[in-house]
Amino acid sequence: MSAAAMTTPTTTAAVLSGHDLHKAFGGNHAVNGADLAISEGSITALIGPNGAGKSTVVNLFSGLLPPDSGQVRLVGADVTGWPSHRIARRGLIRTFQLSRELQGLTVLENLLVTPIDQLGESLVNIFLRPGAVRRQERANVERATEVLHDYGLYHVRGNWARQLSGGQKRLLELARAVMARPKVLLLDEPMAGVNPALVDQIGEHILRLKSDGITVLMIEHNLGVVERICDHVIVMSEGRTLATGRMSELRGNSEVVRAYLGGVLDARLDS
Amino acid sequence: MAPIVYYAFTLLFFFAAYSVLGWGLNLQFGEAGILNFAYIGFVAIGAYITGVTSSGPPPAGSGESYVLGASLPFPLGLLAGGVASCLLAVLVAFIAFRRLRSDYLAMVLISISLVMYDVINNYVPLFDGADGLNSVPMPLSGTFNLDANGFLIFFALLSVGIGAVMWLVMSRITRSPLGRTLRAIRDDPDVVSALGKNVFRYQLTAMLIGAFYAGIGGGLIVEFASSFNTSAWLPAETFIIFAALIIGGLGNNLGVMMGAFVVPVLFTQLPKFIPDIPGHPGLILNLEGAVIGLLLIVTMWFRPQGIIPERPRRPDRFLAAQAPPAPPGGIDADAAEGPPPAPAGATDAETTG
């Protein structure tokens, strides 16, 4: 990798950043010195071939895995090695590559489980403050209902989540993340396996999240979508950050195209 | 009174006691997904501690040997059993819940149960080893001047009352946001953690509540029977309680009661009162395990969700009485106010939370 191909990510106004991140599984260095910075209020795409380390980076950011070395910063704090629940409480919420709906809960309950520190999660409050628990639960139900309307899932709110179609599960995962009121949202291939109409719908939802002030980092293979909705693109290869910039800039980066995307990028963007 | 009356009250007692035991394990396994194969160990600790704290010190020359002979009045001994079981749960949780997947956790819990069994069975000064406790006083029998038969009826009814209170408590827990979060952890702990919830804390809560129920259930059994020893909590006993949950309906407190009625009462206790088949003494009792196993297999084949399955909760029920909210996004054209559709496969069984 030449110095010219590597655009050092700026850390100015970065709400989320990773510096010199390393993560190995046995002898496989899934992430090998990655540097990423996500600007506040932006939609950033994380692209690269399979095995580039994109999902591992998301796992390192979200605390599902601790890095072997390097630093993760979130909203001004060093969160390296924090467990995922602490990172989530600081405002970072993620979705998963394969939909991981809570199958034994209804669609509505999938959203209701999201708010943290609910009064009704404490035994003391359940028995000594039932009125306060009920009022908060009602407020949560009303907000969850609004979110379900937004995401077109209201009519299936009473169904087990496992009964949803693949596309509905994608929407549910996004709706559940939104219910958590995140500052930063990590989406791991939010459009994988969904039909073109739903791709557009999910893209619209993501743009709305941005307008609501939520910072989004998304892994996405659909480069047309990336160009349409993302402000920045980070390209990863072999566990490293290869380049950052706008999609239009990367199209002209011959090294990225040739050495990294093997010409696929051009072909897909031209199509 | 006719003997059959005493049989009936004995069965009523076991129904109440095993319902309590079932609700505790259901919270851990059916709601929180903790495959607690050591559950019978928690029942045993509750029984032993209730037994020894309700009894006085071992009489000199009796040959009995146990700790904590405190002569606590009812229900303090029973509560001591529940609390002791909770303390064991804290210990087990800190050993077993850190960084263990559920299958490994189950193996660790089995190991803990076997270690407990060996220690209690062989270390005689603790709870008199294999002989166990044999003279636990009948609670309140002196207060109400009850003979053995009167005590049997009295204590069966008292246990039903205690069970009713524990049912109300458990129903409120499982219907609450806490119960919902436990079910979410059962489904996918990584997702729940990624939503900002400390999974360990909730699992510990489920272990504590479940252990308390185990301890109380064990305490009721020792006070009813006046005796308890290691033969009462062999690994097969754990199988009985798990079978009750699966057959009755995991994740549904009413299903647990159904399971407690079918497995421990109908298939475990009732056969003890059935006369032997001529020429084959003990055959009926010896078939008990095989019959329960068969019942389990048939249930898994034909009704894997149990007799009374888990039902979807309806936390938005109150909205039905209000004006429908305006759909802010307007995307959901199908939205219509009213009850949500019932999931496929749901029955009309009562939702119990």
What does this structure look like?
The complex is a heterodimer of chains A (271) and B (353). Chain A has 271 residues and is α/β, with parallel strands linked by helices. Helix content of chain A is 39%, strand content 23%. Chain A is built from 11 helices and 10 strands. Chain A has helices spanning 54-62, 84-89, 107-112, 123-128, 130-150, 166-179, 196-211, 223-229, 247-251, 254-261, 264-270; strands at residues 14-25, 28-39, 43-47, 69-74, 77-78, 92-94, 184-188, 215-219, 232-237, 240-245. In chain A, the strands form 2 sheets. A 6-stranded mixed beta sheet of chain A has the order 6-7-8-3-9-10, with helices on both faces. In chain A, helix 5 (130-150) crosses helix 6 (166-179). Chain A is globular, with a radius of gyration of 19 Å. Chain B is an all-alpha fold and 353 residues long. Chain B contains 13 helices and no strands. Chain B has helices at residues 3-31, 39-54, 76-96, 102-122, 124-127, 148-175, 177-187, 189-194, 199-225, 235-248, 253-269, 283-286, 288-302. In chain B, helix 3 packs antiparallel against helix 9 (199-225), helix 10 (235-248) crosses helix 11 and helix 10 runs parallel beside helix 13 (288-302). The longest helix of chain B is centred in the first third of the chain and has 29 residues, at 3-31. The two termini of chain B are 39 Å apart. The model of chain B is unreliable at 325-339 and 344-353 (pLDDT under 50). The interface between A and B is large, with 56 and 51 residues.
Largest sheet of chain B: none
Instruction: Report the total helices of chain B.
Output: 13
Strand content of chain B: under 5%
Helical content of chain B stands at 55-70%
The average pLDDT value of chain B, as a whole number, equals 83
- Gyration radius from CA atoms of chain B, angstroms: 22 Å
Main sheet of chain A: which strands, in order across? 6-7-8-3-9-10
Low-confidence stretches of chain A: 1-12
Number of strands of chain B: 0
Most extensive interface: pair and counts?
A-B, 56 and 51 residues
Gyration radius from CA atoms of chain A, angstroms: 19 Å
Helix content of chain A: 25-40%
What's the average pLDDT of chain A?
87
Overall shape of chain A: it is: globular
Uncertain residue ranges of chain B: 325-339, 344-353
